[in-house]
């Protein structure tokens, strides 16, 4: 007679399941807390103060070629045209013509950022912002970088207690920045090892679960 085969009970390997689920959650939470995936950027802008723009008559200093950005599908084409015209002004050292860019209410923020990138890439000689406009002026002179040989030393006129407190906060901020930089660099350099370690843990749990089921 054929013996009746008993039905096996389902076995759940609780420690392995917990580790597989919680370890990635804790890792991603830690990376989120230290801003491991955050990308930082900055833009250096100078804007006129008071009535400087009107005082120097920037709006009438050149014969400006106007580029209007109003959010239309032609903005990329206008940016390319503006870039080529700016390059022409810089190469020819044109002091008669200039560029005026107007950003309308429907213009995209990315268009403004791309414009600033172009000004940096093409090394625009002189440019100024006023309200929603950017004016670019050509120059006949090539500015020379002058090395500053003066040594500046900051003098703190506060009391010794305030100076000690300031040093304390400076050291604390420095330690926090160094710790965050170390964590970010560790993740960037060791992410392959961490991934392999996690995969090894997965296979180990699977192997243990299979072996545990066979022994029952």
Descriptive report:
The chain is α+β, with helices and mostly antiparallel strands. It has two domains: 81 residues, no CATH class; 86 residues, Translation Initiation Factor IF3, CATH 3.30.110. It is 51% helix and 11% strand. It is built from five helices and four strands. The chain has a four-stranded mixed sheet, with helices on one face. A hairpin with a 2-residue loop joins strand 3 and strand 4. Helix 3 runs parallel beside helix 4.
Q: What is the CATH architecture annotation of the largest domain?
A: 2-Layer Sandwich
Terminal CA distance? 24 Å
Shape: elongated
Mean pLDDT, nearest integer? 75
Roughly what fraction of the amino acids lie in strands?
5-15%
- The CATH topology of the largest domain comes to Translation Initiation Factor IF3
Spatial strand arrangement across the major sheet: 1-2-4-3
CATH class of the largest domain: Alpha Beta
Low-confidence stretches: none
Radius of gyration: 32 Å
**Total count of strands:** 4
Assembly form of the protein: single chain
Biggest sheet character: 4 strands, mixed
Q: What sequence of helices (H) and strands (E) makes up the elements?
A: HHEHEHEEH
Count of the separate structural domains? 2
Helix content: 40-55%
Secondary-structure-derived class: alpha+beta
């Amino acid at each position: 007679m054929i013996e009746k085969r008993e039905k096996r009970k389902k076995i759940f390997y609780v420690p392995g399941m917990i580790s597989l689920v919680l370890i990635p959650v804790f890792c991603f939470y830690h990376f989120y807390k230290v801003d491991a995936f955050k990308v930082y950027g900055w833009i250096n802008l100078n804007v006129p103060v008071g009535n400087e723009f009107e005082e120097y008559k920037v709006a009438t200093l050149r014969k400006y070629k106007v580029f209007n950005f109003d959010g239309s599908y032609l903005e990329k084409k206008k940016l390319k045209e503006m870039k080529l015209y700016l390059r022409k002004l810089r190469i020819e050292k044109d002091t008669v013509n200039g560029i005026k860019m107007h950003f309308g209410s429907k213009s995209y923020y990315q268009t403004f950022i791309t414009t600033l990138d172009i000004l940096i890439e093409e090394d625009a000689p002189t440019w100024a912002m006023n309200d929603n406009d950017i004016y670019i002026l050509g120059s006949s002179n090539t500015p020379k970088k002058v090395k500053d040989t003066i040594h500046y030393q900051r003098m703190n006129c506060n009391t010794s207690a305030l100076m000690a407190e300031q040093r304390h906060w400076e050291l604390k901020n420095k330690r926090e920045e160094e710790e965050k930089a170390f964590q970010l660099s560790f993740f960037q350099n060791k992410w392959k090892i961490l991934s392999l370690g996690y995969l090894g843990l997965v296979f180990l749990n699977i192997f243990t679960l299979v072996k545990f089921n066979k022994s029952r």
